[in-house]
Specification:
The chain has 58 residues and is an alpha+beta fold. 17% of the residues lie in helices and 34% in strands.
Length: 58
Amino acid sequence: MNYRIINKDTYYRKGVYQHFNELICYDCINPTQYVFHDDTETCTPVCTNYNENYEIFY
């Protein structure tokens, strides 16, 4: 997934704030990966802060 394209256009950063049923636009979309643990058969979410500079992001 190309997060540069997603974060560039407000169309892709929209969501619904469930509590007030309002349309919102996020400032930035950060990727989340899930790490699977074989021993416990559970997943741990790992969030990465997006940065337009690929070297910093990586």
